[in-house]
Amino acid sequence: MKANALNFSGGPGALPESVLEQTRQAIEELPETGLSVLGMSHRSDWFRAILQEAENNLRALLGLSDDFAVTFLQGGSSLQFAMIPMNFATAVHARPEYVTSGYWSAKATAEAARVTACREAWNGRAGGFRQLPDLRALDIDRTAAYLHYVSNETVEGLQFPLFDEPPAVPLIADMSSDFLSRPLNPDAYSMIYAHAQKNLGPAGVTVAIIKRELLERVPDGLPVILDLRTHVEHGSNYNTPPVFAIYVLTLITRWLRDEIGGLAAMQAINARKATRLYQTLDALEGAVSLHADRPWRSQMNVAFGFGDPRLDAAFLAAAHERDMSGLEGHRSLGGLRASLYNAVSEQAVERLSEALTDFARHRA
Amino acid sequence: MKANALNFSGGPGALPESVLEQTRQAIEELPETGLSVLGMSHRSDWFRAILQEAENNLRALLGLSDDFAVTFLQGGSSLQFAMIPMNFATAVHARPEYVTSGYWSAKATAEAARVTACREAWNGRAGGFRQLPDLRALDIDRTAAYLHYVSNETVEGLQFPLFDEPPAVPLIADMSSDFLSRPLNPDAYSMIYAHAQKNLGPAGVTVAIIKRELLERVPDGLPVILDLRTHVEHGSNYNTPPVFAIYVLTLITRWLRDEIGGLAAMQAINARKATRLYQTLDALEGAVSLHADRPWRSQMNVAFGFGDPRLDAAFLAAAHERDMSGLEGHRSLGGLRASLYNAVSEQAVERLSEALTDFARHRA
């Protein structure tokens, strides 16, 4: 297998080979325009059609009704951590609730606290961020502006189960690391957002799906660029958008629809990949330890280790010899991490499982 | 000539052919890593080296001392329009001064006015945005937080002359559409910023060059992501940066250094291009009119027209037949516009001049 196909990075990470091939061609010359994608104006008819297709494909994949606006932003989830309380924690709808369940949600909570008074509905730090709460059982103030959580903790490898029923307050989910990995019920949410690059396209674009009734709450007087209504009203073309990243995102939505067959099919593949890797790691129990407790194991990010930094480093070297990359743990946690995003194939996970078993047999 | 080389778009616009060729290769496989550039982690040694090289190359091209920090941001100039007053208009240093000289600076002034009390030092609307003021002769409050201006008005085709002496208050310049087109004296400025994609790389990255003493004024309590110190202190890697756009930007700085030979050489080429096109248009006086008054004609963007929308449309069609694109005027002004960014060659301008002369002879 090519090295690109054996990239287990937490992100930016692997993209589908067919998308890379089309992108390479588009750098030279787009079939539709005869120009490089890097030279296309964001005001061109071609780019307007790409924006529309990206939105349409996301609507079809996720089953979004017209109750939702779909918009493409810059600045990553980190900018949304500030913009969400600026836009939705108002005089009328105040004190949002935040679930702190790992590295990324802790950042979301801390940034919100700089913008507005908010309340921590749950914090898993005392348990080492190895468990997740049942969102339905949390003691939430029913007058809170919204409840914010991160659906998949990329660093710790924790993933919430799907959420089906609308909760008592508007639910806002950062799905950066499991967006488009499985179907969901959009009507349970008031806002879903996800930055690339995990399953979505090159770093530099963030998708936000926002219930239109939530947008009615945005207070006047925000800087225009930080007002989410600006981007919705201008069809994600208020200022120059990241044209290239949105183009590749569009190719990825085509790949999901045409080559994979939709999110249910994607979920089945992702479930087989995760099952294969967790079975391998469970079989190595004693030599290998997993960070997440079993009920909350993520299908996207598997944080684990051999319990000794020298062994972890030796495994990274052994994996490197087999063309595998991106297996270092996040700098905040150390150890190892395998990210199984949509573009990582079952064959790649098979290779990784073999490498782990071989290594544990001979070295660990 | 290839169509990519005849792209006169106001941006995103043309990139150098050798940069496109290296980018195409990098999508498949970076020579340094064996992985696609789109799969490279922002925490990889490779990307750290790219960030460092991008900064070093900009420092060398512009002659920046260590008094300046160099950082790479998302959100375009439009986000800086809000962040600059948030960061630098403080209780101690208040009421910044804004020069409104065209479409883009009007946006900067309006956004600043939403963030803080500010003063309009000059407004050229009554003159139809065809002239520019002498910045040195403006009546500026010497206690103002800063003076903000846009060095080149992309829409109207107006360009300020170079500014050599530090003014009475910190000078902040949006150089989005003429950055790296000519040498400058950085010590005249407290902050210079420029978004791609004009001369700089693909849309989605913004360069900010900030005097370190100005950063000492930033008030505490801003959202972390909107505090310019965050991005400086984290070496532009606080959150996932637009890896691909920064990579291409680095290739462009190499091209400027190695193939062009630096900014003085770039300026000489740009001056020849602008002279050739303006001579052509002046020779067609009567048939063609230019938007900008002569002393403020931009070397980067030439806004003009045949004085009749049908003739302008006919010229666009004639240009299209010769593989030229991007010559439509900005939607706010109509007419035609030729952008002569760094990657537009002298040969391309020659072709455009011929097309204009031929058209005027036979149709206008």
Radius of gyration of chain A: 21 Å
Largest interface in this structure: A-B, 63 and 63 residues
Q: Give the CATH H-level superfamily of the largest domain in chain A.
A: Type I PLP-dependent aspartate aminotransferase-like (Major domain)
Helix and strand pattern of chain A: HHEHEHEEEEEEEHHHHEEHEH
Discrete helix count of chain A: 10
Catalytic activity (chains A, B): 4-(phosphooxy)-L-threonine + 2-oxoglutarate = (R)-3-hydroxy-2-oxo-4-phosphooxybutanoate + L-glutamate; O-phospho-L-serine + 2-oxoglutarate = 3-phosphooxypyruvate + L-glutamate
GO molecular function, one term (chains A, B): O-phospho-L-serine:2-oxoglutarate aminotransferase activity
Pathway (chains A, B): Cofactor biosynthesis; pyridoxine 5'-phosphate biosynthesis; pyridoxine 5'-phosphate from D-erythrose 4-phosphate: step 3/5; Amino-acid biosynthesis; L-serine biosynthesis; L-serine from 3-phospho-D-glycerate: step 2/3
Main location (chains A, B): cytoplasm
Word description of this protein:
The structure is a homodimer of 364-residue chains. The relative contact order of chain A is 0.17. Chain A is globular. Chain A has 364 residues and is α/β, with parallel strands linked by helices. In chain A, 37% of the residues lie in helices and 13% in strands. In chain A, the strands form three sheets. A seven-stranded mixed sheet of chain A has the order 1-9-8-7-4-2-3, with helices on both faces. Chain A has ten helices and twelve strands. Chain A has two domains: 18-260, Aspartate Aminotransferase, domain 2, CATH 3.40.640; 262-362, Aspartate Aminotransferase, domain 1 (Alpha-Beta Complex), CATH 3.90.1150. Chain A has helices at residues 17-28, 45-62, 76-88, 103-115, 212-215, 228-233, 243-260, 263-283, 309-321, 346-362, and strands at 68-73, 97-100, 119-123, 147-150, 152-153, 158-159, 171-174, 191-195, 206-211, 289-290, 301-305, 336-339. At the A-B interface, helix 1, helix 3, helix 4 and helix 7 of A face helix 1, helix 3, helix 4 and helix 7 of B. Chains A, B: This is Phosphoserine aminotransferase. Chains A, B: L-glutamate binds at residue 43.
